[in-house]
Every structure is written in C-alpha cells, then in structure tokens.
Amino acid sequence: MSKLNKLVPTVLTLLIGAGCGALGVRGMQMTLNKAEKAECERVQYRKLVHLTTVVGDTYHCLPSYYFRNQ
Which of 5, 14, 42, 48 is the most buried (most CB within 10 A)? Predict the structure, then answer.
C-alpha cells in the first residue's frame, strides 16, 4: 500500500504539470498568431500561411517569393 501512496501524488503532479504546460503553449500560440496576422497586413509582398497542428491553428507570414514558380 505504501508504493501506491507514493505513486498517486507523482502521477497527479505529472498530469497537472502537463495540463498547465499545454494551456501555456496554447495561449502563447494565440498571441503569436495575432502578431503574424498583423505583420502580414502591415508588410507588402507577404503571404499568410495557415497550418493545423496538435496545439491548434498556426499562422505564419512568409515572403511571397517562396511561392513563385521556378
């Protein structure tokens, strides 16, 4: 029974830490998305690219010359 008493708090600590980390990453991604959208509106010759990831939607503002045919 003593092994179980040590295991439960350890597992709970890991789960709570992972949950807090995931929430932090999601919040940071939302902030970065706003910045990328604002940059693409402000700078000419840029294109907004949308990716769907595990964290959620991700936006990147890339130079237009990446999309030219070679």
Answer: 48
